[in-house]
């Protein structure tokens, strides 16, 4: 049994090293955002001057606003389309054209950004001759982002829909509810936490993308990652450290809040299910 | 029978639910690839769009003109060939490193109690929810000549001269492994956590040592997870642009950078298209393999 314990320690060791690898760079980045020196790797005392400079950077703030708008509408559209696609994959059985549909859903998960961005740009530019069609700019970025985030949302929702007890939906249908009513009254409330998770995933993916946005944005519109990329290409910029600290903090808070909400919702569902089973028994 | 009942519904609604995402993906994901295939056979021209149409109307007849020059250029100019080889090499080595780091993590987490497991997995995923760019950027301050790693190594007396790691391929490897690690751990964990512990107990009862049990039971059973994880890392890594651009320096030749350069610097859409088409063809087999395994997961037919 002592070798077993040895192996357990090995596991803990691997995990500790892995987490150190994952978190140390981010923590160092955050620490150096409070460095008073412009040399971002030599500590010269505590200062918040970079935060001040960050908020005074008009262009950066405009880009942030643009990114937030695009990410919000991307997440909304992706969640709606992703829910439809996940229902098709898990509830619609087989139909003609299902395998290509599945391929269209999963291929964007691994498609390199440069290919997707370049290919979409050629389409948008070709369609640019259609009056009113957004060849470049915010709407073009939105279209591109919905296309690549849609797959991720579909995967999240499909896995939730599979776990879901189909007998609940069947019971409602046996009682005469239409397919749409079942979806709205039974399925949707149960998958609500997964919808939230999918929405957030699409939001962060959109907020994070630099390559695809660069291809389709055109000269007049700039997103936050494009702006950040342009400035870090030149090397270290403490302003970006300050921005990073704020973003990481926001994500950490959102993750903890989101996680506690979903875990509480899941616990409640489990309890309800148990109560229902007891009532039935 | 029940499943048949579930499938019943208003046909109009049904085709709407299938049709909207289907059309979206066809138009914005499938059609663009047809277009780049077309452009890859075109000539460059000055104007908008900066390429010629394949079908030309001349003297009352349509003529189809395929230009193979763009593809010939990829073969003739060594630079492209080297970039493809180097991309696959960098991606393969990074994937292997990610597997070596990620497998023990996923394995250790899968052995924990369910509540700890969830927290641990959240900690694995959390960094990937923060900006990718910023995570790559974080390594500049660490790997720089005057960076933190060199400072620490010199202070403890391991080296006298600062190491040049930043702007070399090594920095690109570190960046790729760092950014893609969660994508390896995730599918591995999902696979490992489903394993039936009784199999291992039976092996121990029969006198197997832990590493024997691991090699003969856990590892073979986790094959699907290993494949999914490796594909999730390798395919996007082949086309990676941001990491080699920010950390790799000029010596890190990758095809994603070549494509970017052809489009943004040379404004040569036909060659950029040819580069993309060849990259896609090379990635087709891994993508199809990934799609197969993923569709089984999506429909709940996973092994």
Could you characterize the architecture of this molecule?
The complex is a heterodimer of chains A (281) and B (303). Chain A has a single domain, classed as MetI-like fold. Helices cover 80% and strands 0% of the residues of chain A. In chain A, helix 1 (2-32) crosses helix 11, helix 2 packs across helix 11 (238-280) and helix 6 crosses helix 8. Chain A is mainly alpha-helical and 281 residues long. The two termini of chain A are 43 Å apart. The model of chain A has no long low-confidence stretch (mean pLDDT 86). By secondary structure, chain B is mostly helical. Chain B has helices at 2-7, 11-39, 69-76, 78-110, 114-129, 132-143, 148-155, 169-192, 197-205, 210-221, 223-238, 242-248, 255-264, 269-298; strands at residues 55-58, 61-64. In chain B, a hairpin with a 2-residue loop joins strand 1 (55-58) and strand 2. A two-stranded antiparallel ribbon of chain B has the order 1-2. The chains are: A mainly alpha (281), B mainly alpha (303).
Would you summarize the structure shown here?
The complex is a heterodimer of chains A (281) and B (303). Chain A is mainly α.
| Oligomeric nature of the chains | heterodimer
Q: What is the CATH level 1 assignment of chain A?
A: Mainly Alpha
Mean pLDDT of chain A: 86
CATH C-level of chain B: Mainly Alpha
Average residue pLDDT of chain B: 87
Q: How are the SSEs placed, and which strands pair?
A:
The complex is a heterodimer of chains A (281) and B (303).
Chain A: H1 2-32, H2 49-56, H3 58-91, H4 98-110, H5 113-126, H6 138-163, H7 166-174, H8 179-208, H9 211-217, H10 224-232, H11 238-280
Chain B: H1 2-7, H2 11-39, E1 55-58, E2 61-64, H3 69-76, H4 78-110, H5 114-129, H6 132-143, H7 148-155, H8 169-192, H9 197-205, H10 210-221, H11 223-238, H12 242-248, H13 255-264, H14 269-298
Antiparallel strand pairs in B: 1-2
Helix pairs in contact in B: 2-14, 3-14, 4-8, 4-11, 5-8, 6-8, 6-12, 8-11, 8-12, 9-10, 11-14, 13-14
